[in-house]
Amino acid sequence: MTMSSSASPGTGPSAGASTTPVEEPSALRSRGAARYSDRAFTIMLWAAGATVLLVLGAMVVRTVSDALPVFQYQGFFSFVFGTEWHAGFSRQEFTGTYGAWPFVWGTIYTSLIAVGIALPMSIGVALFINFYAASRVRQLMSYSVEILAAVPSIIFGLWGLLWFVPTVLHPFSIWLNSVLGFLPFFGGSVPNVNYFHAGVVLGIMILPIITAVTREVMATTPVDEVQAAYGLGATKSEVLRKVVLPRSFGGIVGATMLGLGRALGETIAVLMLVGGSQRFDTRLFFAGDTLAAHIAATFQDASPETLVALMGIGVVLFIVTMVVNIVARLIVWRFAKTAGAGDAL
């Protein structure tokens, strides 16, 4: 029996094959002027990013160029680390002595006091909101933290000067100084305005900033790691100490640096509470001054040469802030891998 080897049309392997359809324009493809919208949008984004750099560069160049004469007259390191500040009144030349270290010391000192008070409280509040508070309490506390962050610094200053310091903080400082007066950072008189009082109010001011960021970072802790720790028999406190806090380390450092940056540059509240003295001391209850507060206090009545010196103080404040941010990034970079918080910032 002979079988035919020929296949009839429409049968065989290629019978179902169809010709390639003609490519039609997609409905999502840009047409006309809209074809250039993506390029225009990219240019706008580049311009926005470049604007930030240009503004920062313009500020740095302008302030440094304006402050350069006082650096040349006093010497940069003598200006930063000098301990005597006697403003001159000349319009043509420098006649005063300009040493900004008392203000640098006051800025760093009050900011460290503020961070030392705010950081533990912020971590505690963030842990309570995320892991202990009931739903209604969590919402109320979160809203309260946001409201506190929006309070203007002048309100904090007035509240501290007129009620908190004389009613609460000053009596406590007198008692603390009498008990710990034998230690190096205590002793002497306790004026109504000093480093410690300014630092405490600063700590209250930066508390909501650190708390808000820390709370959000802790909320990103992977649920499977938390449940795994519970499954291994860990208690809630152990989970928080060994899982949540290590995971949140980078974010906590970033939040702390945000708060520290706010404290370093704070002006009005510190001006009301720090004392306004052009001297410095290691004692907590010494009346001193800060960089930003001294600029605000003396700018209006300053002579031309003193204005140049105040611009120098502004340059020093910028350098201090930049160093703090660099140190923060180094800390995060150093511990990110071991703490598992590399992506927290």
TrEMBL record:
List, alphabetically, the InterPro entries matched.
MetI-like, MetI-like_sf, Phosphate_PstC, Phosphate_Transport_Permease
Question: Where does the chain cross the membrane?
Answer: 40-61, 108-133, 145-166, 195-214, 249-272, 306-328
Q: Give all residue intervals belonging to the ABC transmembrane type-1 domain.
A: 104-328
Q: Which domain of life is it from?
A: Bacteria
Tell me, in one coarse class, where this protein mainly resides.
Answer: membrane
GO cellular component assignments? plasma membrane
PROSITE patterns named among the record's database cross-references: ABC_TM1
Would you tell me the protein name for this molecule?
A: Phosphate transport system permease protein
